[in-house]
């Protein structure tokens, strides 16, 4: 088993910067603003003498009584409980605070080894810089600079030497689908994640914008591996005011690009908006397999349900390749069929299409409907083969294919999807025209 290192501390001490340093990524949002990280964020450690897991946590407020800070504290406490070693990050430039002392008391009761990292220590006298933190009672403080990497490797080696090497399988190789949960703010994305996991893994709070980062959560169900990605709600561009929210939108779009399957969550208690259509359009443009989850279905009567279905058919008609599910994430209703559709969409997105059957399907499609002429010439399609996956790409070779109209392309897409039963994923067709050997001759 890989050891798990949990980064804990008050807001804005540099935990996310250290997380990115240890994982050699930019997965955690970083800005000079307290309270940016809210959920716990997992990553694979990529420095040090052996492999390990790193968990970033939000600013820890052990005495929080209400609001979002209570949920952030719960997430931090859950991370502490599952950690093998705790890295208590403090801000050496601010100095020791009462808040640090309160966190130290909580960590002592956790019964885990605690390593005190005094951050922002670039270009200082280390002994003087760390002197006051001996008061916390965790032994020698380790002065580091997460931003510049100073002292990080030494601290890491010290932590990892207590965990013996063992025969490990490549535990970070998750062969299952990466599933991004996307939608407008406050439609129930985090609640759906928690329903799938059967635990309060991410913060679900009745306030738009609760999720800011894209949080990856590996899990297994019925022996199948998945990685769920909880994303920030996407607002209309004109309503994205905060700099942090702009970063969140970027992380969401990146999550869609890196996913295999996207679950688009709609709120049945609200009208299907132009923003829902914009999000769906982006997913389609990215070529990702898609499952539609209409949440809060239990709140509607029969008339409301029929109205929502009609609204979806009218405004999201271009998603007719995707399966629709009417669910209640809060009541955990309709979740199992939703996950089955995710499996089907993933299988369709990653399908391998044999060249003989592709070419035979192309010939049969042309026999039913020839492509229209362009001037005196009719485009001639000769054979087809697969050119990619996620989404499936079919490459068709022939002559004068530059002039095939979009309507005929859609006809071929529908034909291939029907023949190969590709439900849940879009399909791309590329036309490649053979070069005319006489084109450069007089």
Automatic annotation (TrEMBL):
Keywords carried by this UniProt record: GTP-binding, Hydrolase, Nucleotide-binding, Repeat, Ribosome biogenesis
Cross-referenced InterPro entries: AAA+_ATPase, G_ENGA, GTP-bd, GTPase_Der, KH_dom-like, KH_dom-like_a/b, P-loop_NTPase, Small_GTP-bd
Source organism of the structure: Uliginosibacterium flavum
SUPFAM superfamilies in the record: P-loop containing nucleoside triphosphate hydrolases
Gene transcribed to yield this protein: der
Subunit description: Associates with the 50S ribosomal subunit.
Residues binding GTP 1, per UniProt: 9-16, 56-60, 119-122
Top-level taxon of origin: Bacteria
Record's protein name: GTPase Der
SMART domains: AAA
Gene3D superfamilies in alphabetical order: 3.30.300.20, P-loop containing nucleotide triphosphate hydrolases (3.40.50.300)
Residue ranges of every copy of the EngA-type G domain listed in the record: 3-167, 177-350
Family: Belongs to the TRAFAC class TrmE-Era-EngA-EngB-Septin-like GTPase superfamily. EngA (Der) GTPase family.
HAMAP family: GTPase_Der
Molecular function terms from GO: hydrolase activity
Residues where GTP 2 binds: 183-190, 230-234, 295-298
Transmembrane regions listed in the UniProt entry: none
Function of the protein: GTPase that plays an essential role in the late steps of ribosome biogenesis.
């Amino acid at each position: 088993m890989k050891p798990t290192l949990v980064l804990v501390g008050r807001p804005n001490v540099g935990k996310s910067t250290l997380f990115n340093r240890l994982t050699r990524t930019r997965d955690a949002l970083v800005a000079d603003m307290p309270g940016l990280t809210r959920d716990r964020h997992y990553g694979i450690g990529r420095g040090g003498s052996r492999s390990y897991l790193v968990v970033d946590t939000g600013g820890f407020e052990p005495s929080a009584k209400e609001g979002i800070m209570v949920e952030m504290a719960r997430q931090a406490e859950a991370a502490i409980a599952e950690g093998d070693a705790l890295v208590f990050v403090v801000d050496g430039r601010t100095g020791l605070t009462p808040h640090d002392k309160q966190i130290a008391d909580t960590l002592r009761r956790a019964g885990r080894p605690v390593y005190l990292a005094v951050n922002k220590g670039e270009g200082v006298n280390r002994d003087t810089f760390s002197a006051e933190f001996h008061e916390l009672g965790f032994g020698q403080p380790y002065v580091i600079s997460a931003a510049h990497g100073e002292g990080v490797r030494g601290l890491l080696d010290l932590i990892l030497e207590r965990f013996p090497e063992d025969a490990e399988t490549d535990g970070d190789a998750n062969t299952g689908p990466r599933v991004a949960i996307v939608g407008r703010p406050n439609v129930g994305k985090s609640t759906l994640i928690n329903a799938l996991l059967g635990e309060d893994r991410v913060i679900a709070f009745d306030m738009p914008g609760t999720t800011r980062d894209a949080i990856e959560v590996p899990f297994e169900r019925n022996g199948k591996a998945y990685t769920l990605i909880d994303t920030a709600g996407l607002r209309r561009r004109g309503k994205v005011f905060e700099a942090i929210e702009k970063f969140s939108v970027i992380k969401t779009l990146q999550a869609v690009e890196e996913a295999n399957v996207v679950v688009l969550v709609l709120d049945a208690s609200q009208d299907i908006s132009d923003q829902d259509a914009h999000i769906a359009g982006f997913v389609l443009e990215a070529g990702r397999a898609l499952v539609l989850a209409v949440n809060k279905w239990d709140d509607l009567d029969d008339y409301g349900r029929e109205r929502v279905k009609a609204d979806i058919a009218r405004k999201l008609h271009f998603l007719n390749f995707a399966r629709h599910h009417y669910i209640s994430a809060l009541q955990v209703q309709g979740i199992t069929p939703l996950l089955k559709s995710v499996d089907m969409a993933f299988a369709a997105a990653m399908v391998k299409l044999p060249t003989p059957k592709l070419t035979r399907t192309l010939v049969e499609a042309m026999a039913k409907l020839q492509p229209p002429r362009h001037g005196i010439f009719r485009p001639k399609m000769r054979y087809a083969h697969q050119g990619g996956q996620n989404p499936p790409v079919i490459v068709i070779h022939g002559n004068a294919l530059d002039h095939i109209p979009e309507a005929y392309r859609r006809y071929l897409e529908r034909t291939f999807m029907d023949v190969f039963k590709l439900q849940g994923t879009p399909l791309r067709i590329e036309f490649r025209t053979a070069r005319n050997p006489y084109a450069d001759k007089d």
